[in-house]
């Protein structure tokens, strides 16, 4: 794909993300922005994240940020993690937690570790296991670092 076509696709995805009446179209646009893996989409996705109300679209935006792997998205994603962790464990959106953990793992920013640490004591073994995998991926020396603290 040449740069001109890529830019046209990028602009069309952005337009769809902000203007499409259908949540499905907005979710697909977010996914497609993530597949382009362009850092310039991070701020656009962040803006969409602030105005979006649909749960599925929000999840797709978080996934797209993970695909782009821009550390600028780390703190935005951890805000959603903190929001979920504040809820009683039975009310937490497990799908969103998995998406958040996987996205933070892909980004690999060590600032996420403090927030991910809240999930190491989760009652759900799948979440605990994925969180440990995220720790290993982001900082392979995390166990030694914790002991030294």
How would you characterize the overall build of this protein?
This protein has 149 residues and is mostly helical. The chain has helices spanning 3-19, 23-36, 41-51, 55-68, 74-86, 94-107, 112-116, 125-138, 142-148. The chain folds into two domains: 1-68, Leucine-rich Repeat Variant, CATH 1.25.10; 70-149, Leucine-rich Repeat Variant. The protein contains nine helices and no strands. Helix 5 runs antiparallel to helix 6 and helix 6 runs parallel beside helix 8 (125-138). It is globular. The protein starts with a helix and ends with a helix.
Features:
single chain, 149 residues, mainly alpha, Leucine-rich Repeat Variant, 9 helices
What sort of overall outline do the alpha carbons produce when their principal axes are compared? globular
**SSE series:** HHHHHHHHH
Count of helix runs: 9
Query: If classified by CATH, what would the architecture of the largest domain be?
Result: Alpha Horseshoe
Low-confidence stretches: none
Beginning-to-end CA distance, first to last residue: 49 Å
Largest sheet, if any? none
Radius of gyration based on Cα positions? 16 Å
> How many domains make up the 3D coordinates?
2
Structural class: mainly alpha
List the helices and strands and how they pair.
Layout: H1 3-19, H2 23-36, H3 41-51, H4 55-68, H5 74-86, H6 94-107, H7 112-116, H8 125-138, H9 142-148
Helix pairs in contact: 1-2, 2-4, 3-4, 4-6, 5-6, 6-8
In short:
The protein has 149 residues and is an all-alpha fold.
């Amino acid at each position: 794909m040449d740069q001109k076509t890529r830019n046209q696709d990028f602009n069309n995805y952005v337009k769809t993300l902000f203007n499409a009446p259908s949540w499905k179209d907005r979710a697909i646009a977010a996914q497609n922005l993530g597949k382009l893996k362009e850092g310039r989409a991070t701020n656009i996705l962040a803006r969409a994240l602030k105005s979006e109300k649909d749960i599925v679209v929000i999840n797709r935006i978080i996934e797209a940020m993970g695909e782009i792997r821009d550390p600028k998205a780390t703190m935005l994603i951890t805000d959603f993690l903190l929001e979920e962790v504040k809820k009683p464990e039975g009310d937490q959106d497990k799908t969103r937690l998995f998406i958040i953990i996987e996205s933070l793992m892909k980004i690999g920013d060590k600032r996420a570790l403090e927030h991910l640490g809240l999930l190491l004591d989760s009652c759900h073994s799948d979440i605990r296991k994925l969180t440990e995998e995220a720790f290993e991926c982001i900082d392979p020396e995390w166990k030694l670092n914790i002991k030294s603290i």
